[in-house]
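Researcher: Please predict.
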Amino acid sequence: MEPTNAYQITLWIHYFISVSFLVIAIWLIIRSFRGIIRGLTYLKIDKTLAYLFIIGLYLQLLLGLILFTNLSIFGYDYQSADGSVAMVSKRLWPIEHIVLMLFALFIANLGLIFSGKSNISTTKHRKILIYYSTAIALIAISLASIYWL
């Protein structure tokens, strides 16, 4: 397999998981919001969605780190003059993106831990909504910063 093709395949897998993650995130936020408003019981599907959210973030982290590293296996060179100029022109976006993604993963993990310690369904929904929405906001800021700033 050609190095450039390996990079493109990994990038497309990263995109596919991103879209899947977005669907899970929207579904989870809607269920959490409805759970708070209507006082619904925290069901197994809610817990499954919360775990899928975290798994999606970890998969994105793994693929993102593979895409970011310069091991010369994917043919994407951050060390070249053109690569360095492109990075500086985008305000070192890859570094900012990874740091914000790590914070999002940390916050989502806190939400999962804190929601798991609660015995009241409404509190579980509220903690999931707060922490996971914060993680999603960090992800959105990270992705938007390449275009806005």
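Model: Residues 3-148 form one domain.
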